[in-house]
Design a protein that fits this description.
This protein has helices spanning 55-68, 109-115, 143-150, 157-167, 177-202, 211-215, 240-247, 261-264, 279-282, 327-331, 358-371, 382-385, 391-407, and strands at 46-51, 72-75, 87-89, 95-97, 105-106, 121-123, 128-132, 135-139, 232-236, 253-256, 270-275, 292-302, 312-314, 323-326, 338-346, 353-354, 377-379. 30% of the residues lie in helices and 18% in strands. The protein has 422 residues and is of the alpha/beta class. A 7-stranded mixed β-sheet has the order 8-7-13-14-15-12-16.
């Protein structure tokens, strides 16, 4: 089969390109010279302007339109919906994720139930191998990893726990990412699997990074080779973008792409705003720029069916890129060719990863205080809350923000921003 997922995708009613018909649209670079705005009674007005068509913006648009009967304009400066989760068929017809691999594990039944209204699921359990000492070894570090790396024969969880305890380095107070790893599995595993990868990813040594960064991928004593252990592990059957098309297919929702909201402020009347872009930009960088780590992506298509044994291979010690991802493992697509993406971390580019350092948390706090006194604007999503949230966390946050919005009268600042834990 060429360029299609295994099952034909059903049509969506109310397509995304339908966008705006009677609303004046400014394109990037347009000037307002000679532009005569339509009189107020000619204009379409909206209850909500939503900035950003990623998970946060799309879920809120859908809830407001379908549950509260609100008219919503959702705008994005990119040329597509779905934010960082955007996927599309490349020139060879392989479904790829433009902003790096997006995998969907969650323990939240509420989030699964909500998204299941807009997609069917393709079961997928994520697997990652790390290239270490010429071998491809399971990540996160587990009993399987140390058995294969050191030629051990640890038979059960208890013997592995004992082994980790014997190689762990005592750390009085765990503060940094180096502390947390060496205190769990010792220095050799830290040096082989974690240090080089983290230095590439963040441009900082783990000793300079908050413990939370490396705590995300905890070592385990079992020989479970899956990357995640969440109760629900699957991918949207027809891809993320298709799912977003369905989320946004409500007649009360209009979509405006290729447009920074600042280009249309004053042209399109609306009552209240939901902002899912970078919070520092919203306040014109008043307290300074919040730092982000970014990525450059190199996509390659290979004229063979498979390129690597699992979806993701990490390269902690070799190459300038951190990892390679072969999409067909994730999507379940049948195709005679295969596409792979290589990720090169950088300080410049789209804002992807908030840098978790105490001075950045302080800076964010200043913006948050400002956000909490700004009436009629609700802040949601990853960039507006300067947190590394996974997709399911952003969906959960958006569902809670919707409840806040419904409970907050016009003219009143939004309640404290909702934060979400795994
Ligand atoms: C490389 C990478 C890999 C990831 N992998 C995973 C994964 O495997 N699993 C997982 O659960 N999560 C993953 N994530 C996280 C996931 O991408 C986020 O949780 C999710 O995309 C957040 O949704 P959001 O709506 O908050 O933000 P976004 O998806 O970033 O959407 C925000 C949107 O706002 C738009 N915008 C910003 N400013 C303006 C403006 N001024 N005017 C108009 N539009 C604007 C942006 O263009 C963007 O489209 C990954 C993230 C990255 C960067």
């Amino acid at each position: 089969m060429n360029g299609v997922l295994r099952t034909a995708e059903p049509p969506v009613s109310g397509t995304v390109g339908s966008a705006l018909q009677s609303v004046p649209i400014a394109n990037p670079g347009d000037t307002l010279d000679g532009f005569v705005p339509p009189s107020v009674h000619q204009r379409q007005s909206f209850d909500f302007m939503i900035v950003g068509a990623g998970f946060a913006g799309a879920v809120l648009a859908e809830r407001l339109a379908s549950q509260a009967g609100k008219r919503v304009l959702i705008c994005d400066r990119r040329s597509h919906i779905a934010g960082n989760a955007y996927d599309h068929f490349d020139d060879a017809g392989v479904l790829v994720h433009r902003y790096g691999p997006h995998i969907f594990p969650t323990n939240s039944q509420r989030v699964v139930d909500y998204l299941s209204r807009f997609t069917e699921w393709h079961p997928y359990e994520h697997r990652v191998l790390a290239e270490v000492d010429g071998q491809l070894l399971p990540m996160p570090i587990s009993r399987a990893t140390v058995n294969e790396l050191y030629g051990l024969d640890l038979k059960d969880d208890a013997s592995c726990a004992e082994y980790f305890a014997s190689i762990a380095e005592p750390v009085e107070q765990v503060r940094t990412s180096e502390d947390i790893v060496v205190s769990r599995v010792g220095r050799d595993l830290y040096n082989k699997f974690i240090r080089g990868y983290t230095r590439k990813q963040w441009g900082l040594d783990p000793s300079q990074l908050d413990a939370s960064v490396c705590a995300r991928v905890a070592p385990r004593v079992s020989d479970d080779r899956r990357y995640f252990t969440d109760s629900f592990q699957a991918m949207p059957k027809y891809g993320f973008t298709r799912m977003f098309e369905r989320i946004l297919a409500h007649p009360n929702i209009k979509i405006l792409l290729n447009t920074d909201y600042r280009e249309v402020i004053g042209l399109i009347p609306f009552d209240r705003m939901i902002y899912t872009g970078p919070i520092d930009e919203f306040f014109h960088l008043r307290f300074g720029k919040l730092p982000y780590r970014s990525l450059e992506f190199r996509f390659e298509t290979h004229a063979r069916e498979w390129a690597q044994p699992v979806a993701v291979v990490n390269y902690p010690n070799n190459h300038a890129y951190t990892r390679s991802t072969e999409f067909k493992h994730l999507t379940g697509q049948d195709h005679p060719k295969t596409s792979v993406v290589y990720e090169y971390p950088t300080d410049n580019g789209d804002p992807y990863y908030p840098v978790p350092r105490p001075e950045n948390a302080d800076l964010y706090r200043q913006y948050r205080e400002l956000a909490e006194t700004t009436p009629d604007v609700f802040f949601a999503g990853r960039l507006a809350t300067y947190k590394y949230y996974d997709m399911h966390q952003v969906v959960a946050q958006a569902l809670s923000v919707f409840e806040n919005i419904v409970a907050t009268p016009k003219g009143v600042p939004a309640p404290e921003l909702v934060s979400v834990t795994r």
